[in-house]
UniProtKB/TrEMBL annotation:
InterPro entries the UniProt entry points to: GH
Superkingdom classification of source: Eukaryota
Protein name: Immunodominant antigen Gp43
Origin species: Paracoccidioides brasiliensis
Family matches, as Gene3D superfamilies: Glycosidases
């Protein structure tokens, strides 16, 4: 609440975003409630990259989970949601994603768990080297997330 009032003392019209702290958005119902607090948004985050369980997901499992988000996670919040930092990535293979000089969970070069596959072109920084199937899967995953996130007030795509 202190942060809200600090912002309001400077500008009464600017939006105030608060993080969901990786909790379900409904957890925050009643906190900075819209009836009393104006122009407050809840910043929610969902990825399918950093948890070990996602390393072995098929494209169908990624899409199914994305499609379930509006029903399981995104509905029922008492303030508008902004989905932050979502992407088409289904692995943590992107260069420097886990930090400079730190590897990937997916290929086993990150110091945890066992590898699920090779990063290959996914670590190059350009989609131009992905296989036709990888491009098709990425597009399918992005489209599923776009459909899911339509229930939100907005989103940020992480490139």
């Amino acid at each position: 609440e202190d942060g809200y009032h600090i912002v309001r003392d400077i500008d009464s019209t600017v939006g105030v975003a608060i993080s969901d702290a990786s909790l379900p958005p409904r957890t925050w119902n009643g906190f900075l409630a819209p009836k009393t607090y104006k122009n407050v948004y809840l910043d929610t985050y969902h990825n399918q990259v950093f948890d070990d369980i996602f390393r072995t997901f098929t494209i169908d499992q990624h899409v199914k989970l994305a499609c379930s988000l509006p029903h399981d996670r995104l509905r029922g919040a008492d303030k508008p949601l902004i989905v932050k930092e979502w992407s088409g990535a289904m692995t943590d293979c992107a260069m420097y994603l886990n930090g400079r000089g730190i590897g990937s969970r997916f290929d086993g070069s990150f110091p945890s768990g066992k590898p699920s596959g090779a990063c290959g072109a996914r670590s190059k920084g350009s989609s131009s080297e992905l296989s036709a199937q990888q491009k098709k899967d990425t597009l399918r995953y992005i489209e599923a997330q776009l459909d899911a996130f339509e229930v939100a007030a907005g989103w940020y795509f992480w490139t």
